[in-house]
Every structure is written in C-alpha cells, then in structure tokens.
Amino acid sequence: MVQQLMGEVAVRDGQIATRDQVIHTKQTHIDQLTHELAMYKRWRYGKRSEQLNAAQLSLLQETMDEDLAAIEGELAALRDAPVATPQKPQAPRRLRLPAELPRTDIHHEPASTQCPCGCQMQRIGEDVSEKLDFVPGVFTVERHIRGKWVCTQCETITQAPVPAQVIDKGIPTAGLLAQVLVAKYADHLPLYRQAHIFARAGVALPDSTLGDWVGVCGLRLQPLVDALRTEMLGRTVLHADETPVQMLTPGAGKTQRAYLWAYTPTSYDSLRAVIYDFAPSRAGAHCRIFLQDWHGKLVTDDYSGYKAGFATGITELGCMAHARRKFHELHANHQSQIAAQVLELFGALYGVEREVAELPADARRRIRQDRAVPIASTLHQWLIAQRQRVPDGSGTARALDYSLKRWEALTRYLDDGDAPIDNNWVENQIRPIALGRKNWLFAGSLRGGQRAAAVMSLIQSARLNGHDPYAYLKDVLTRLPTQKNHQIAELLPHRWTPAA
After folding, report:
1. Are 276 and 261 contacting, i.e. CB atoms less than 8 angstroms apart?
2. At a CB cut-off of 8 Å and minimum separation 6, what does 331 contact?
3. Is the pLDDT of residue 238 over 90?
4. Which of 10, 309, 62 is CA-nearest to residue 183?
5. pLDDT tens string 75-117
6. Is 341 left (phi over 0), alpha (psi -120 to 50) or beta?
7. CA-based nearest residue to 376, from 340, 394, 350, 402
8. Domain Transposase IS66 C-terminal: where (predicted)?
C-alpha cells in the first residue's frame, strides 16, 4: 500500500515538473512577445506605399533629367570634345531674361590694347552675354560685356576671352547653381518646388532645366569627393553606418530598398568630413569596395555586412551606445530593475568620456585606463552573473548576450586614445538624410543616388567645418572650371577659406 502511494506521488511529482517546465517555456515566450509588442508600439511607422502619385512622378522626371545631363557630361569628357547636339525639328529658343530684373555690368577688356604692329587699337564695339544670378530671395542679371578692339592700321581685332563656367554657354551663375544644390540636398526642396518658388520671383525655370544643371554640377563636383575620400582613407580610425533609401526599379514603376552608406573620421580627428556612398543594396561588399585596402579601426554596429572586412585586417570597434540602448529599451518598456542597475554602469563609462573629450589622445587613454577600465571590468562581471540567472529567449537575455558576445570589440576603445566609445558621431551625420527622405521620397536611379551622395557629402562636410554651404559651393563652382587637377584638394571643405 505504501509503495503504491509512493509510486503515485512520484508520478504526480513528474507531472508537476513537466507542467512547471511548460509554464516556464510559455512564460518566457510571453515575456518575449510582450517585449517585442512594447517595442513596436514605441517604434510605430506610418504606412508606406509604392504607388506613384503625381508628386512622385514629378520627382522621377527631374531625376531623369539630371541623369541625362550627367551622362552627356561624362561622354563629353571621355571623348574630349563637345557632345553633338541631335537635330530636332525645331530648336528650342534661348530663355529671354526679364527686362525688369536689375543688371550688373561686368566689363572684360584685353590686358593690352597695343597692337603688335605698334599702333594703338580703337574700340569698335562689344559683345554682351547675360547670365542669371541669384542672391537668396532676389534675382539679378550679370551683363558680361567684352569690348572689341581693332587696330586701324592692320585691322587686327582683340577681345577678352569668355570667362570659364561650370556650364558653358548656360545662363546660370555659380551662385544660382549653388542655391539650387543647397535647396535640393540641404533644405530638401525637390526641383519642382524650387521651380514654383522661382516663378513667384519672376523667372520661369522648367524642372528639366534645373535637372540639367544639377546633373552637370554633380559630375563636376565628383573629383572633390574622390579627393576627400583619399584623405579620409589616410586616417587610422573611421566610423561607418548605413541607412535605407528607396530607389526606383527601372521599368517596374515600383521602388526597391537601396542604402546610403556613411563614412567619417572620429570627432577627435582634425579632418571634419563625411562621405556618403549610395549603393543598390546593403551587401557588405559595398563597404569593402569603398575602403579598398584600408586596414585601420572601424567603428560599427553589429551588422554582419562588416564582418568580412574584419577578417581581412580591419580592426572592429564596437558601439557602446548600441549595447546601452538594449537595456534602455527594457527599462523604458518594463521598468526592469536589472536594466536600471546596468544603466548606471554605462552612465559611469560615459561620464569618463565627457571629461576626456577635449583632451589629447595620450591623456585620454591614460585616464581611461585609470578610471574607465575598472568600471568596465565591474560591468562585465555583472553581465556574466546576471546572464546565468535569466532564461534564454527573454528580452533581458538578448540584451545581455549582445554585450557579452561583443565585449572585446566594445572595450577596445579603452586602449586607444584616438578611438571613440560609440558610433554616435556618424549616426548624427545620417540624420539629415532621414529628414530628406520624407521630402524627396526616393532616388530615381542608381546614378541619381550616387550624384546626390556626392553633393550631400560636400554640403555636410562644409557644415562640419563651420561653413555656409551656399557660400562654399558658390565659390567652389566659380573656381572649379580653372582649377588645376593637382590643386583640386585646395577646394575641399576643411581647407577652403572664404574669399576676402
């Protein structure tokens, strides 16, 4: 009888243990789903549609105009000759500039009016060409007057040459081109909106014309971005990050997800610059193509696309902000006590960084070794101890695993005074792109995205160096046509100085 009762008790104990295991598994899954649901409620996105409305079609048309202008410019450069203009039934008439706009006369005369034969030349006339300029909010017209001089004895005629322009024989000045570029890529105004603004100011400029200008400027500015990239790859520590951008799929009438990659030196570096690289996907090969043979230290998040580069000699530096963010989400969503405790340790590490931010690299490393290393060691031991207590699959377990699996990369900054604690610097440089996505909606083509990336690289780099992007681009576009190739680096944002 006793043995029978003991057997029943043993069976029931087994059933209870099984049920406890099932309950534990279900509860873990419930906690996981609850955590994810809370995250989705906080990160809720609006509806996205791939259907093209009227505004999107207008944006597509302007990017096609830009592509055509850029392609024509490239062909002209490769052939070292002007692109032949195709014959049309009726040639378009040159835009007549409104007579009521104020004019500024700029005279161009020969350096010498003395004829080689020894006689003094006499002025017999002049050629006048008009270019449309733009001072923000006000249109003006530059009248370039080139006097003609002739020798009455030998009838030799001389005249000052036509000043070199970014767009030969076009009406826009460098100021107007800079305004269009800054408005499109810094102020996020699509070309059709700019056309409406210009019309209100008294000048009708078609979207296609503005698209042509943007395409040519993007092509002309690319050598500056290439030179900036060469200087950036000479640095030992870089940041990298990427953000999605919609790109129109050719022939499909829909968009696909492309990516804009961002690269920048650290905030400790004297080189203040950022380069955006537009790519059709998030494949890590795009990062390796950009970095080429560079073998420095790269600060990134945990995206797997960077892993192949780390296998070829690049040293991985982790982002402490990403590790901290996992626990912040737990604390914000569930008031987790574990998360609250670990956030205090993360806060102590960042407290050290605030104190050493303005110090030289050697001093920064020394203070980190003295003060931050003990904090990091305590944090590591705490993470290991807590991981043994929480069930697998829970939100807390995932947050702990993220930090523990990447601990070596997360703490490499402690041994290098030039290395930052996180990747926030490059994330701040991507924020303007996130704002622009809400206005220009998508890139019309791969070429259009690459052109936009080049112009945005120069605009954002100018901002980082404290320059007005409009003043910078106006001066660069003025000097670029006559700038020698081996002196192109003089126009980079970190070397540029405004004209006196």
Report:
1. yes
2. 339, 340, 343
3. yes
4. 62
5. 566 555 444 455 555 666 667 888 888 999 999 999 999 999 9
6. alpha
7. 350
8. 457-494
